[in-house]
Amino acid sequence: MELQLWIYYLLAILILTATPGPNILLAMTTSISSGFKSSLLVMIGGLTATIVIMTLSFTGLGMIIASSEFIFNIVKYLGALYLIYLGYKALTSKQENYQINDNNKISKKDKISLFLKGFIVGASNPKAIVFFIALFPQFIDPNSSMLLQYFILVGTFLVPEIFWLLLYAHFGNKSAHWFLEKGRAKFFNRITGGVFIGAGVLLSTSNRS
Prior knowledge:
Elements: H1 3-18, H2 22-34, H3 36-59, H4 62-67, H5 69-91, H6 108-123, H7 126-135, H8 146-174, H9 176-179, H10 184-204
């Protein structure tokens, strides 16, 4: 891949990753309510899902989802329902206060739960597959090593994506005590629930174009 072409790709990725989405929202809210360590597990799950999506798109397998209205809608509505479910749980939460202590160990069950939550949210947007299917061909040189180009394209995306995830999670963790002071935890859950439900509804109205 030529340097100039890579710079164009990097600029496109910087614009994409700087826009907060469900992955960033989940990482930040998890960091606020459960601590920074818990948000790391959510991030790993989301990043794993993103790598899967990018791999499918790069190899052409993602075209099956992108070209099939039926499969696209299944992924879309399942993802939307899960986001709405997360929002509903936050809205109906009776919890008044949170005890945040990043020194506490996270159980194996909670680790798996956090990872899966991040993975499901990360994999729930079929528009990402459509985006990468449209993006990758513009930056792939058929005369160069495909494997090397794969690692360059994926790596270039992951670095700024990880940066923004960590930044928002750090901000969430630092502002947790303000958000979760007595009486504010319920307010925080209402905001979080509304945003997740809004994101789910927005996702359900998306199409392949």
